[in-house]
Amino acid sequence: MINIALPKGRLGEKVYDLFEKAGYDCPSIKENSRKLIFENAEKGVRFFWVKPSDVAIYVARGAADLGVAGKDILLEYRPDVYELLDLQMGKCSMAVAAKKDFYDDTERTLKVATKFVRIAKEYYAKKGREIDVIELHGSIELAPILNLSDVIVDSVETGATLRENDLVVVEKFLPISARMIANKASFCFNTEKVEEIVKKIGEILKNGESL
Ligand code: PRP
């Protein structure tokens, strides 16, 4: 049985459709229920719905053999997993954003609010810019509006959240997409099975069937 951690939400549903097209279906997952685990013994797969930012933890610790996590989470937390495939879904960018009238006074330490502390630190370290990082866990856009920070470092998909809060992108600096990841030990034990899954899903992506 291959255990697969899917990110709960719209992206996870799209990822499940990909598995289904690849022949690893588990129809009960589409029934509206509060269940979190779904299994198709015949196909040898078991899916779990996991909070997106927790997928890498399940995979790194071996509670799941495979999972799907955003490149942002992988860069931020550096889980000890194999990254097998770019699923070309859940595309967005990591960006710096600020109020429209933001002016970067390089004489001052820049206050940066973010969920992605490591990514923000690395980005500004490369620029040689001194920053004060304020770690938040959601609704990051509030920080510059309430003068908690000068800028934010956050993921931007449609840009709607920034627009509706009168913020603008200062710089998009990192393209993000969902990646299939594998537990390292389990990959060694189940190489054939996992590679077959990856190959079938890769073919579907190549043919653009999922788009
Ligand atoms: C993410 C991100 C932005 C928003 C960007 O938040 O932190 O707030 O999506 O998407 P958009 O460009 O399409 O508007 P998420 O939905 O994960 O919620 P959070 O604020 O609780 O982190």
Structure overview:
By secondary structure, the protein is of the alpha/beta class. It has helices at residues 10-21, 55-60, 71-77, 117-127, 142-145, 160-164, 184-189, 191-206, and strands at 2-7, 37-40, 45-50, 66-70, 81-86, 92-99, 110-114, 131-135, 151-156, 167-176, 178-183. It has eight helices and eleven strands. The strands form two sheets. The protein has a six-stranded mixed beta sheet with strand order 2-3-1-4-11-5. The relative contact order is 0.21. The structure holds 1-O-pyrophosphono-5-O-phosphono-alpha-D-ribofuranose. Residues 138-140, 154-161 line the site of 1-O-pyrophosphono-5-O-phosphono-alpha-D-ribofuranose.
Question: What topology does this entry show?
Answer:
Elements: E1 2-7, H1 10-21, E2 37-40, E3 45-50, H2 55-60, E4 66-70, H3 71-77, E5 81-86, E6 92-99, E7 110-114, H4 117-127, E8 131-135, H5 142-145, E9 151-156, H6 160-164, E10 167-176, E11 178-183, H7 184-189, H8 191-206
Parallel strand pairs: 1-3, 1-4, 7-8, 7-9
Antiparallel strand pairs: 2-3, 4-11, 5-11, 6-9, 6-10
This protein binds 1-O-pyrophosphono-5-O-phosphono-alpha-D-ribofuranose.
Unreliable residue runs? none
Instruction: Work out the oligomeric state of the chains in this entry.
Output: single chain
Q: Please state roughly what percent of the residues sit in beta strands, choosing from under 5%, 5-15%, 15-25%, 25-35%, 35-45% or over 45%.
A: 25-35%
| H/E element sequence | EHEEHEHEEEHEHEHEEHH
Instruction: Give the structural class.
Output: alpha/beta
